[in-house]
Amino acid sequence: MHSVVAIKQVPDTTNVRINPETGTLIRDGVPTIINPYDIHAVEMAVRLKEQFGGTVTVITMGPPKAAEALIECVEQGADRGILISDRRFGAADTLATSYVLAHAIEAIRAEHPVDLLLFGKQAIDGDTGQVGPGVATRLNVPLVSYAIAVESFDPVKRRAVIHRKIEQGVEVVEVSLPLLMTVEKEIAPVKRAPLSNMIKAATYKPEMWSADTPVQFDITQVGIKGSPTIVGKAFTPPPREAGAILSVAEKGLRDAVAQALTMIGQAHVVTVDLHV
Amino acid sequence: MSEQVETSSPRIWVFIEQEDGQPHPVSWELLGAAQRLANDLPGSVVEGVLLGHNVAGVAPQAFQYGAKRVYLIDDPILEFYRTMPYGMGISKLITKYKPEIFLFGATTLGRDLAGMIATHMRTGLTADCTELAIDPKQKILAATRPTFGGNLMATILCRQHRPQMATVRPRVLPMPDPIPDATGEIIREALDMNESDIPLRRLRLIPSEAKVNIEYADVIVAGGRGLGGPHGFKLLGELADALGGVVGASRPAVDAGWMDYEHQVGQTGKTVRPKLYIAAGISGAVQHTVGMSGTDFILAINSDPRAPIFQMANASIVGDLYEVIPELIKQVKGMRNGH
Amino acid sequence: MATKHTFDAIVVGGGPAGTAAALTMARSGLKTILIERGNFVGAKNFFGGVMYTHAIADLLPDFWERTPPFERPLTEQGYWMLAPDSVVRMTHKSEHYKHEPADAYTVLRAQFDPWLAEQASKAGALVVTRTAVLRVLQDSKGKVIGVRTDRPDGDVYAPIVIIAEGVNNLLTQRLGLIKNDLPPRFVALAVKEYISLPAKDIQARFGLTGANEGAAIDIFGDATMGLPGTAFLYTDKAGISIGVGMLLDEFIQHKLRPYEVLARFKNHPVIQPYLEGGKPFEYGAHLIPETGYDRMPKLAADGVMVAGDAAGMVDALHREGTNLAMTAGRMAGLTAIKAHQAGDFSATFLNQYRQDLENSFVLKDMKQYRRMTDFLDTTPHFMGTYANFLNDVALRYFTAHGIPKRDMERQIVGMLQERRSFFGVAQDMVKLLRAMRG
Ligand SMILES: Cc1cc2nc3c(=O)[nH]c(=O)nc-3n(C[C@H](O)[C@H](O)[C@H](O)COP(=O)(O)OP(=O)(O)OC[C@H]3O[C@@H](n4cnc5c(N)ncnc54)[C@H](O)[C@@H]3O)c2cc1C
Ligand SMILES: Cc1cc2nc3c(=O)[nH]c(=O)nc-3n(C[C@H](O)[C@H](O)[C@H](O)COP(=O)(O)OP(=O)(O)OC[C@H]3O[C@@H](n4cnc5c(N)ncnc54)[C@H](O)[C@@H]3O)c2cc1C
Ligand SMILES: Nc1ncnc2c1ncn2[C@@H]1O[C@H](COP(=O)(O)O)[C@@H](O)[C@H]1O
């Protein structure tokens, strides 16, 4: 049983600040984390490994610093981490990202066949959720997005039954292996890793892949060149204008409330008749 | 198979999402947006794309919301949504008819599908847009979306690849008024697939319990951490009832278990577009306000005169919500009783 | 399948003390594990901002080639005495500070601590993060034999454990090395904000010529509402570190919230222009031990040594802590190496560590200022009274009133006597002198 998990290191958006002058993200000093959904994908892979044996490979495309995230995955029980990092991969949109990941996975599975591909449902920096479906399409494997539970998994009969969250409820699908799942956090609560994993990870060095070694990537499909979308402009959202401020302390409770209701009434927004 | 479709005029396509023959209202919001784009893109035409089994009945509604034509693939294989057959079917249509722009709802279905199609067509896809426009100079789609937790808006362009694709969250765009007697043309295409080609099948659906649909409510009374506990939502519920609305919540209130996730408004919750939004004990963080800034009238109630929510509210009451809300309930009820 | 994890030495805590100890031991070949509970080393650590290079050089003679993440060298330092609406400034700027590496730099701990930990890793130390030590393991005779972490299969064994857990020294307390939790009198609480600001604005406001200059200013008087404590304003590369610190006791007694004291300080008419247009980026609160020489814990017992803030090694008057911590960590590490050579991990042997510290600036300074906390404790009016006095004097002195200067001088003396009797002043000065002299 061999699973490949794609993870992304993202800025912790709870700490994100924008430079109001340039409208760009201030990355300095902003802590990075593993995209919260992705760590659950790793956990799912580790659980299947515990059940069926085998290996968990984790890949990421990102700057050299992203090696930290791979090491954290080794702490969680992954066996192998590959960082695909090259200047030329920078500023990739989801199409270029899915190319790089799909091409890397092709190289990995040529050496060691892959039964399961795991992705997070979306990355919290871009919130697109497009990379998983993109990789599934490129590799021509069935896609199960928004997975919340694995009901059964049979690496021998090569079938899995998976629950996925959709608007109408929970859809239960049967799917053949290999498959690609994008996961919600519910898929597997993250367990606290044992100290032996931590000790192993403390000296673990992820493999580093560039655009030409050990695998040759098609340079026209990566980075800015391989990205059909470009950012035209970035700006902070225009504010709504503030309206009247009614202070209970100044106007008294009854009047403050009455005035607010009158304003709502005058705006004709509600069908309930607010003033008589 | 009809071939009388003109090929010269740029096509703006909207995916008409349906489940069991029930169209998702976001499809109509998208048709409205597509019409506005068409006005800025001379000669262009707005068309719908509809897939499913026995769903032709949905097409007339698409005409009423502005589609001139609906491309329909009706096949038993398409009875339930599955990425592969839907994606292949639509990719075929794209190859044949070459639309300029293709819009999808950013629903679970729409995101899954658009992601596949964009990759298959090797084109650009902008996710979760909040605003669509035609760039006046280049005459291409300018799709604006929040990034980095709503702190920043980015306008994305796709210059060379076609179609230019985007998904748009439900309720971010206004619902257009239907034109009752509008009609249009249905163009049927075949799927040409076998069930045995498809590696995935639905075993069953566990429907979620009857849920509130705050996305389409006209009045929302929302509470946040300032409620201090689940009991506060009882009070808000009472006010919501008096106003004929529903209850919404900020994320901390949901995380604390005071309210179900279904009620959460904001970046990681629902986008709402009510006529009246009452925010009680909500500070007004950007991740919350991106989900409700399309509201017509915002009334904010907060004890802190510097609460950021006051910057965007049409009317603000500075005071303790545990005094203000009961008074609101009293006065609203009083009005309805004609006092 | 619990594995037994055995090392030559265990270090608890990845602050300057712990990392220095781990680096020292690993470099000499000891199989060393450093356990840090933060997400990464330095994740939650913060301080005012001045790092002294002498201690780094003792640890890593070639540190300069290893490009430490320094912010700005200090080329101007000094004190401001703040009254509610004025300030008396006394700072020292000198070309003599300008050499590379400089004597002191401002740093951000979230960058410096990981760098130092990386040097320890390079030296061979195993750095394990996201793991907290819950307690120290002892044999039946009380000898320390390892630690228990909060992870499954999380016990680690070693003949020597160095505790460098910082000011919240729970492990030190549980081992009985110190009596009990420090009373609020002997611990200060500091809050700090890092405010980002373009480098050119910082340079213009502080009169610096470029990134090769920096200022560190400690502020007394109205900054802490006249209560015993200090505030600080340090320049970083593209930001300002601003904070206030007061004895925890004072916060409690006067029902003050630390953040409000800082907010008040930031709004002071003298301070506010320095911050104008800056974006608050980070906010934090941290304790500083004001333990003092006489109340320090036992520094060694069988199989264990304590270093840094955990042992109260801070010289608050000169805002020095990291250099004491790093020096102590290094000395504890050297003692551990000798203990391994001798095969003796007894308290008696390890006490050599205390001896080394007594011979160094660490305990010499601690000893000299042993009465400082008591001085502030018994002279709480000191800061407020004299800072205001200085400001009033300055105003008097620099304003012409058309009266003879001699009369003005008398008025000034009168102003002091109004506030404090002659004996009061004399008493304060004698006490201060004693506190300074040790
Ligand atoms: C990636 C990301 C996604 C997020 N997604 C969402 C999201 O989808 N939705 C969302 O809401 N948040 C979201 N957040 C969280 C968001 O940043 C804020 O933390 C959150 O919106 C704050 O909720 P609040 O206003 O209820 O609480 P607070 O900010 O704590 O505000 C409580 C308010 O109540 C007031 N108050 C207290 N007592 C009273 C009283 N008695 N009477 C009147 N007023 C009172 C206080 O003055 C205060 O203004 C997200 C954050 C991140 C990082
Ligand atoms: C506001 C402020 C301003 C200061 N200004 C200066 C200054 O300008 N110059 C200066 O030299 N000093 C200054 N200091 C003092 C200086 O920060 C400390 O003296 C120094 O950091 C002490 O180093 P340490 O290694 O002993 O402890 P710390 O730096 O506190 O490190 C302790 C480490 O141990 C970890 N830890 C604790 N318990 C456990 C556990 N059970 N398991 C695992 N890990 C654990 C912590 O996470 C932490 O990383 C200042 C302090 C403050 C608060
Ligand atoms: N650069 C990347 N490297 C590895 N995996 C990625 C990368 N970007 C996205 N992913 C994966 O794709 C998922 C969805 O990301 P996104 O489409 O960007 O929202 C993430 O949760 C990751 O599993």
UniProtKB/TrEMBL annotation, chain B:
Residues that bind FAD: 225, 250-251, 264-268, 281-288, 302
Electron transfer flavoprotein alpha/beta-subunit N-terminal domain spans which residues?
A: 12-202
Q: Which residues cross the membrane?
A: none
- Molecular functions (GO terms): electron transfer activity; flavin adenine dinucleotide binding
Reading the lineage from the top rank, the first entry is Bacteria
**What start and end residues bound the annotated signal peptide?**
none
What PROSITE patterns does the record point to?
Answer: ETF_ALPHA (PS00696)
Q: How is the cofactor bound?
A: Binds 1 FAD per dimer.
Among CDD domains, the record links this protein to: ETF_alpha
For whether the record's keyword set contains tRNA-binding, the answer is no
> Biological process GO annotation list?
fatty acid beta-oxidation using acyl-CoA dehydrogenase
> Which key words tag this protein in UniProt?
Electron transport, FAD, Flavoprotein, Transport
- Please give the Gene3D superfamilies that the UniProt record associates with this protein: HUPs, TPP-binding domain
Protein's name in the database: Electron transfer flavoprotein alpha subunit
Natural source organism: Oscillochloris trichoides DG-6
Automatic annotation (TrEMBL), chain C:
Signal peptide (residue range): none
Write down the InterPro entries for this protein, in alphabetical order.
Answer: ETF-QO/FixC_UQ-bd (IPR049398), FAD/NAD-bd_sf (IPR036188), FixC-like (IPR039651), FixC-like_C (IPR059103)
Q: Name one GO molecular function term.
A: oxidoreductase activity
Where is the ETF-QO/FixC ubiquinone-binding domain positioned along the sequence? 229-287
Write out the entry's keywords from A to Z: FAD, Flavoprotein, Oxidoreductase
Keyword Disulfide bond in the entry? The reply is no
Top-level division of the source organism's lineage:
Bacteria
Answer yes or no on keyword Hydrolase: no
Cofactor(s) annotated in UniProt: FAD
Q: Tell me which residues make up the FixC-like C-terminal domain.
A: 372-437
The family classification in the record reads: Belongs to the ETF-QO/FixC family.
What is this protein's name? Answer: Electron-transferring-flavoprotein dehydrogenase
- Tell me the organism: Oscillochloris trichoides DG-6
